[in-house]
TrEMBL record:
Residues 94-315 form the Glucose-methanol-choline oxidoreductase N-terminal domain. InterPro entries: FAD-dep_OxRdtase (IPR006076), FAD/NAD-bd_sf (IPR036188), GMC_OxRdtase_N (IPR000172), GMC_OxRtase_C (IPR007867), MIP_CS (IPR022357), P2Ox-like (IPR051473). PANTHER family: PYRANOSE 2-OXIDASE. Pfam families: DAO (PF01266), GMC_oxred_C (PF05199), GMC_oxred_N (PF00732). Gene3D superfamilies: FAD/NAD(P)-binding domain. This is GMC family oxidoreductase. Its cofactor is FAD. Residues 12-48 form the FAD dependent oxidoreductase domain. Residues 417-536 form the Glucose-methanol-choline oxidoreductase C-terminal domain. Belongs to the GMC oxidoreductase family. Keywords: FAD, Flavoprotein, Oxidoreductase.
Amino acid sequence: MGANRSPASSPDVCIVGSGVAGALVAYELSKAGFEVVVLEAGPRFDTSNRLDRMETAIRPGNSITDIWDVGGERDRFSSSGEVFYGLNKTRVKGVGGTTLHWLGVTPRFHEKDFEMQTRYGLASDWPISYEDLRPYYARAEEELGVAGGTDNPFTPPRENDYPMPAFPPSYSDSLYAEACDELGIEMHSVPQARNSEPYDGRSACVGYSTCIPVCPSRAKYSADVHVAKAEDHGARVIDRAPVQRLEHDDAGETVEAAVYETPDGSQHRQTADTFVLACGAVEIPRLLLLSESETYPNGLANSSGLVGKYFMDHPQVTVTAELDQPTNQEPIGYQTSESHQFYDHEEPTPGSIKLVFMNKNPPNTAEAAMRGGDEGVRGEMTDVFTGDVWGDDQLDWMREQGPNRKLKLLAVPEMLPQKRNEVTLDRTTTDDHGNPVPDVSYSIGSHAAETMEYIRELQHDILDEMGATILHESDLSQPSIASHKLGTTRMGTDPETSVVTPSLRTHDLENLYVSSGSVFVTGGAMNPTLTIAALALRLADHLSSNR
């Protein structure tokens, strides 16, 4: 018998999306006694199949699109900006959302990230402060299960220790440490939502080293954890139910229903007292723009004209190098050391930097064979035939490799919002429901570009001090993207310059809220997931207190 995907009967809250934001809001509200329904566009993935998904991941030639059923008409998109934005490599539609394949790094934003205009005359201030989020950061760390240490002298004020101890530094971290000590660069542990000991009914990390794109042991947090908890408290989750549009009342003051379609092609109207959009900084503006009406011809909640505007995602600066000694013989799929020393800057430029000391794993034999010995390709397995060493020469090269001697440095620069960076509708291309697909227009901007140049110099200083030979550097004009999708429904007190209020309610509709990185005013240089989670918990408290 097929799954029941008929609408829930008169729920208090309808949540669109089941990533970390939607899952936490659903859990908190259902625990508080609300009747909650969650509409998820993608499927429910069987957790017992994650070993199979890992096997798919480690086979040469496979990518995230194979592992998490991404792609096809359902996931069509366009990219029209200066930098190509490969959306299907940075999202998963399904119960748990993109946390199914994220790395799991969970730093807090710093105080300065909320005060960019006041401190530097750049961008805009958030209408809330670090202190407003501080208790919710602590709660988010408890809910996700964050392992971290007390060795970071640059972290913003904290109220208690992390729920779990930090992971110890890797062997390659010790090689960086000597050079960084000479250069006066302080290294420290990395907060991450990965169990360093058993936590919340899940095991400690067992070292599969396939964190991206899949953690078979579930030691790394994913949002389906809180989806299950929400269901235990009575929430109902309807999967494979992509929302096509939102419908409002005659006065245009409230949302009445979310119209979704099921695999059999039928459409349903899910009514509720309150609606929360939690489907990410690309699909949220797309849904609002698709919900145009006579009352709102430019899309729902868009009286400011800013829905979809100020899209942000962090570019990445990487350098791969080689030492004349072994570096990492036992693969570790996540970093264990960073430096936030260059984050709280005094002058406006260069902007904040998060410096990451990567554990560069050796290529497996099949990958090395398919690459033809070429160190310059991007590692996406779409460049299989671009190598320059083949046959017997390739076999000799592989035999001569010996211990892994590779190193990799990665850094993320501060990303400022630009109005020209936006998510719009591409009306020339449609998805499997006949709707226009999202078009992402993305450019780096001068602030981030200047910061990236500074990062490259810093990386060279470290590798020169180590005596390393540089093998490959990322292209600063066409960088890889961190998959930190932010902006597009920014938060503010003025309805003319923002989409949602500080309580995350849309200015235009009194029962429509947004819980997503889309509400970020600025992007900082830190991974955003913990801030998204903290905002979700804050929203749940707001809805509970105003019941």
